[in-house]
Design goal:
Elements lengths: L8 H25 L9 E2 L2 H9 L7 H6 L9 E2 L14 H34 L6
Antiparallel strand pairs: 1-2
Helix pairs in contact: 1-2, 1-4
Length: 133
């Protein structure tokens, strides 16, 4: 197996960070899509524990697998208890999901920016490798 120059521990970690964030983003979208589904229960994932699980080499789960191989209803997630339930048994809150969506978007933007910075650092190292000043 060959390793690319951009395949660093930092780019792998940031890739897993983005994969877990996208998985959470999908769960939020599923929750919002089911806001009128009687009996539907809000699902979410614990970002920190999923990130640790995706980063664990013994888990057999690469970060990209978390998202790309997951059918939406199979994305890891658990029902959230303690939310106010409507008479039809649905407990999706637009306010809660909107807030989580904004949080997921900010995390995604942060991850992309850090990844861009890492690639910029790699580019600088490659382009200044043969020069001495």
């Amino acid at each position: 197996m060959s390793q690319s120059m951009t395949d660093t521990s930092m780019t792998k970690a940031l890739g897993r960070f983005l994969d877990v964030d996208v998985a959470r983003y999908k769960l939020i979208a599923i929750n919002l899509a089911n806001i009128d589904t009687p009996g539907y229960k809000t699902r979410d994932l614990d970002f920190r524990s999923e990130l640790q699980r995706a980063a664990d080499p013994d888990s057999g789960l690469e970060g990209a697998q978390l998202v790309s191989n997951s059918i939406p209803h199979q994305i890891p997630g658990r029902q959230i208890r303690g939310l106010m339930e409507r008479p039809d048994g649905n407990n999706v809150s637009v306010e809660r999901e909107t807030l989580l969506l904004a949080e997921a978007q900010m995390k995604y933007n942060l991850g992309v920016q850090l990844l861009k910075d890492e690639f910029h650092t790699i580019s600088l190292a490659i382009n200044s490798g043969g020069t001495s000043s």
